[in-house]
Amino acid sequence: MASGVKPRVKVPKKAAAGEAITIKTLISHKMESGQRKDKSGNVIPRSIINRFTAEFNGQSVVDVTLEPAISTNPYFEFEATVPEAGDFKFTWYDDDGDVYESTKSVKIG
Amino acid sequence: MDFTRRETLALGAGAALMTILPFRANAAVEDVIAEFTGGAAVADGGVDLTAPEIAENGNTVPVSVEAAGASAIMLLAAGNPTPGVATFNFGPLAATQAASTRIRLAGTQDVIAIAKLADGSFARASKTVKVTIGGCGG
Amino acid sequence: MKIKALTAVTLLLAAPMAMAGGADDDTLVINEELEMVTKTAAPAHMENVDEIMSGWHFRSDETQALQMDDFDNPGMIFVDQGMDVWNTAEGSEGKACADCHGDPADSMAGVAATYPKWNDASEEVRTLQMQINGCRTERMGAEAYKYDAGTAINVEAMITSHSRGMPVNVAIDGPAEAMWEEGKELYYTRTGQLELSCANCHEDNYGNYIRADHLSQGQINGFPTYRLKNAKLNGVHSRFKGCVRDTRAETYSPGSAEFVALELYVKSRANGLSVEGPSVRN
Predict the structure, then answer these.
(1) Any CB–CB contact under 8 A between B107 and chain A?
(2) Is B51 inside any structural domain?
(3) How confident is the prediction along chain C (282 residues), in pLDDT tens digits per residue?
(4) Cβ of B19 and C9 within 8 Å?
(5) Which residue of chain C has the CA closest to A6?
(6) Does the predicted TM-score (pTM) go above 0.90?
(7) 3-class secondary structure for chain A?
(8) Which of A36, C43, C247, C254 is a Cys-bridge partner for C148, taking CB atoms 3.0 to 4.6 Å apart?
(9) Interface ipTM above 0.85
(10) Cβ contacts of A61 on chain B, cutoff 8 Å
């Protein structure tokens, strides 16, 4: 699944110190549930993103465990507090061991 | 085989129930909840769950959960082959203990949110989502 | 009594589905700035419909919302992937789309609104995908994409996204007219064991239910379309194929002359509606 996986993240470029901001994330991924069968009747093995984390300057915003019931192209929306200027780091963990990362900087102003 | 009037009514009532009742509540749901709560009591209220009353397609159903001060919220779909959907663990920089995502529902069923609140107690909310069947396979 | 009993059951089963049908009156604004024309007067060539409407109006509020913000729209993931392809050199000439066409936000603005259209050099009506493949085989020395295959749709969606909000405006006269007439004939021809034409569902019965689903006018101004059903972008010809198959007929293939003609005709029925691709539907 390493090919074609593409994270998208929406984070404001600027925030006031201590402001709550809305973050949206989306990653292209099939999220193969392990419940489906192929044309010859064999179960297609599960292959999903099983964990997603959002951190700001090393501190956790949210840490999500995903199950196969999360839709294809997993989407999350949540709110984070920005205490100072710094970097958001978003990480998606794939069943196959791959890790996808995206970083966004936020200025204070 | 002929039906009497009474049988007809019973059949009709049964069919009506079939359309109203969600998928059979499954024992796995209670097990997953017990694992999350460590067997503690779960109160109603204290967690908000937003989901559409009718989903146009079970493949992508938007849902939101919120529980002020919660450290974690677990989301379950009681009628799916496996009930787990996601668990949100909120860190110190979560501005609200709220999240939205999109989930798969195998059919009309209850979606359940269990929150672990700031005081360590547990709260529950649930909502029935009707999943419609599309007209054309496309 | 048997038949009556079954009828009673059927009625009870049907009852919960008896919701109001039809198009709503919501307004489609994307990213809080791009207002779309989703209802307007039908073009003069349409004889049986007064007002044309985007399929967006026939969807639930939740599905509608997915198209109102580019971030919420999962189709935009594939637009990003199409952009990667745009910038990647391929073929014996070592050229990328960008080498000739630069920034698609400038060079491709308005392009999708006019396709399918007549191509003088090849003396044929070309869909946007055919034009992309023309570039690939004639200028890049690269292989043509399979019609409606993933990469082709991604590039088509990326190009189309730069026409969003512009009115569909395909030419139906001049050298394209003969093909347009063919498309019109196909639109009104009943096919399959069910003996249904496009018009039977999308002209005679839009707003009514087909099982638990609204029938739209079958407008294609929103293609490529991200469908919740299969969680990917879908091409117009693949949709046509699905529809024809549902009439229980042998279908034409994506990329066939018949579907090119049908695309030209059906797209001309959207003349005046905004280009929406990539839209989101169920």
Answers:
(1) no
(2) yes
(3) 444 444 444 444 443 333 445 789 999 999 999 999 999 999 999 999 999 999 999 998 999 999 999 999 999 999 999 999 999 999 999 999 999 999 999 999 999 999 999 999 999 999 999 999 999 999 999 999 999 999 999 999 999 999 999 999 999 999 999 999 999 999 999 999 999 999 999 999 999 988 778 899 999 999 999 999 888 999 999 999 999 999 999 999 999 999 999 999 999 999 999 999 999 999
(4) no
(5) C77
(6) no
(7) CCCCCCEEEECCCEECCCEEEEEEEEECCCCECCCCECCCCCECCCECEEEEEEEECCEEEEEEEECCCECCCCEEEEEEEECCCEEEEEEEEECCCCEEEEEEEEEEC
(8) C254
(9) yes
(10) 90-91, 93-94
Which positions of C are annotated as active-site residues? 243
For C10-13, the CB contacts below 8 A with 24+ separation are C12/B12, C12/B15, C12/B16, C12/B19, C13/B15, C13/B18, C13/B19
At C203, list the tokens. Answer: 């002209």
Provide CB contacts within 8 A for C248, sequence distance 6+.
C192, C193, C194
Q: Is B57 on the interface with A (CB under 8 A)?
A: no
Tell me which residue range forms the domain holding B102: 23-129
Residue B62 forms contact with C (CB below 8 Å): yes
User: Is residue B117 in some structural domain?
Assistant: yes
CA distance C266 to C218: 8
Q: Tell me whether residue B13 is in a domain.
A: no
Number of domains in chain B: 1
B50 within a domain of the structure (yes/no): yes
Q: Which of C72, C77, C81 has the highest number of chain A CBs within 10 A, making it the mutation to test binding with A?
A: C77
* Interface probe with B: pick from C228, C234, C281, most Cβ of B within 10 Å: C228
Q: Is some CB atom of chain C closer than 8 A to the CB atom of B138?
A: yes
